Amino acid sequence: MAGSGKTLTALGSYWKGRKPLILNKACILGALLPATDSPLKDLEIFEMLMGMDRRSLELRLEHKNDKASRFFLAQEQEVENKAPYNEWVRASSRPEECGDALFTHVWARVNAHLGTTAYSFPELVEQIGIARFGHRPRVWPMYLVVAVKFPLKRHGWVVMFMLQT
């Protein structure tokens, strides 16, 4: 039985009983990406790296390629319907199902913003990890380490990974 302090269990039920890799990817990127003087640009770059920007959503719809996703994409392109994000997500494939081709359009902008030369996620994690910690970061799966609980006001947060510096 999950209590209110068991954040991972609550997140797992939110994600329909799974803790997908995309959630871990978001946490790792959030821990590594530097904050710049332009928070809106930082958010835009994070969304691009997560496959949440407009172009990535279109590619995710094309990848799914079923009748509903083709109709949704045609409606968005022809009528310029401004559907909410949750409708885009419902109609499209998950980012991890699309492979690396989903992110080919993001690297030039990511590199320009972060001052990196990466063209894959392992390269990006290595470069921003070296910039932040002075060496390549090592990410440990949670089943290998003890969960650490950080209090945040009245709620707790359990770390799903440990970033060894």
List the helices and strands and how they pair.
Blueprint lengths: L6 H8 L6 H12 L6 H12 L3 H11 L2 H13 L5 H7 L3 H4 L8 H8 L6 H13 L4 E4 L7 E4 L2 E4 L2 E4 L1
Helix pairs in contact: 4-5
Describe this entry's structure for a reader.
It is a single chain. This protein has 165 residues and is mainly α. The chain has a domain at 33-144. It is built from 9 helices and 4 strands; from the N terminus they run H-H-H-H-H-H-H-H-H-E-E-E-E. The strands form 2 sheets. A two-stranded antiparallel sheet has the order 1-4. Helix 4 packs antiparallel against helix 5.
Low-confidence stretches: 143-160
N-to-C CA distance? 34 Å
What oligomeric state do these chains adopt?
Answer: single chain
Using the alpha-carbon principal axes, give the shape: elongated
Number of helices: 9
Main sheet properties? 2 strands, antiparallel
Name the strands of the widest sheet in spatial order: 1-4
Radius of gyration equals: 18 Å
Percentage of residues in strands: 5-15%
Write a brief structural summary.
The chain is mostly helical and 165 residues long.
Which descriptors apply to this entry?
two-stranded antiparallel sheet, mainly alpha
